[in-house]
Amino acid sequence: MWYKKRIGNDLRFFWTINNEGQPYFLEDKNLTLLVRDPIGPVVVSDIVYSNNVVAFTFYGKDQRKCGKHTAILIENDGDTQMRTIDIVGCVELVPHSYLEQDGNNGSNLTVDTINLESSVVIGVPGPPGMSAYQSAREGGYTGTLQEFYALLGNIDKMHVLLTQEEYDALEEKDPSVIYMIYEEEE
User: Considering only CA atoms, which of 23, 25, 5 is closest in space to residue 110?
Assistant: First the structure.
């Protein structure tokens, strides 16, 4: 489900959080909510949660750039047992009202309320260690980092992993894409 909303309007979100299909209760949790736009993260101060639903408003005054935005919920930010979940592309801000659409039928929206849902597996945090790629390499994986990310599905249309040479060879660079440059291992 995706939504296209005109930039500059207050948007109300209701985000249901589940852990392995069961409600993940949020009371008494130390939560931080961010909305990442193409420029970077914006801290959302108007956040209310009850049971397993987070309600927040992404104010028009805080919307800095058109494009796809990601909602990020962090438990215990910067502390032990920190957990993070996100919904990439929870809303796409567009420059004109006639471009507004919802993910169901493509019709213009009249209500600025967006319902989101996440089902995540929240494990017990362990000590810092190797990255998943390093661990895979140690276990015999022979592919490149880019191939590894593609296998995991971590690279979406907003993020493209390239070598510097591949980036330099692009004839046209899409301003809505975040190009990540990596060095090839020898």
Answer: 5
